[in-house]
């Protein structure tokens, strides 16, 4: 009798679970960074950022120094034991790292400005999509081990952000 009762309870639970989840049973993934970086606003901001004279100069300097470091490494790899070349390479490496840190700080600042501009709209758009599509579970795309493309709402969010920025 107990076995029959347990079987009935388990059967009822298995049959009732899909009905209980029917309202919000859809799962989706979403990449916040990708959605923002693919917007027209972000693309325009990135072009403006990279065309700033101070940024363009830092990028050019970094590329030049990187080539110089590569050339010095090749010379040292060919058997040149010059202390002077070794020191020169170390100084250039330090200069390169400093420029990269400055560029990263500037990029981070530009990204924060962009996030401050888009963030409030992003939250509302994601909420609307979740409600419209009956999404019961929304995961960060990077946290999912596998997700079919049909589960990804990132492009929808980007599209709606672009539409909202035109208004």
How would you summarize this macromolecular structure in one to three sentences?
This protein is mainly α and 167 residues long. It has six helices and two strands; from the N terminus they run αβααααβα.
What this model shows, in words?
There is one protein chain. The chain contains six helices and two strands; from the N terminus they run αβααααβα. With 167 residues, it is mainly alpha-helical. It has one domain. Helix 4 packs across helix 5 and helix 5 crosses helix 6.
Q: Based on DSSP secondary structure assignment, what is the total number of beta strands? A: 2
- Report the β-strand fraction as a percent range: 5-15%
Say what oligomer this is.
Answer: single chain
- How many distinct helices? 6
Strand order of the largest sheet: 1-2
Give the helix proportion (percent range).
over 70%
Average pLDDT number: 83
**Overall 3D shape:** elongated
- Evaluate the radius of gyration: 27 Å
How can the largest sheet be summarized?
A: 2 strands, parallel
List SSEs in N-to-C order: HEHHHHEH
In terms of per-residue confidence, which ranges show pLDDT below 50 for 5 or more consecutive residues? 1-22
* Number of individual domains: 1
Distance N terminus to C terminus?
67 Å
Report the structural category: mainly alpha
């Amino acid at each position: 009798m107990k076995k029959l009762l347990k079987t009935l309870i388990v059967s009822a639970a298995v049959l009732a679970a899909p009905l209980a989840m029917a309202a919000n049973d859809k799962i989706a993934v979403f990449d916040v960074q990708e959605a923002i970086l693919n917007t027209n606003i972000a693309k325009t901001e990135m072009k403006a950022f990279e065309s700033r004279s101070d940024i363009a100069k830092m990028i050019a300097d970094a590329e030049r120094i990187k080539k110089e470091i590569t050339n010095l490494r090749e010379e040292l790899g060919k058997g040149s034991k010059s202390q002077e070349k070794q020191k020169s390479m170390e100084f250039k490496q330090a200069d390169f790292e400093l420029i990269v840190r400055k560029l990263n700080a500037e990029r981070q600042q530009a990204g924060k400005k962009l996030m401050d501009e888009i963030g409030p709209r992003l939250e509302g758009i994601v909420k609307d999509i979740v409600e419209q599509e009956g999404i019961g579970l929304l995961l960060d795309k990077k946290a999912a081990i596998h997700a079919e493309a049909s589960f990804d709402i990132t492009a929808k969010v980007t599209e709606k952000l672009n539409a909202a920025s035109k208004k």
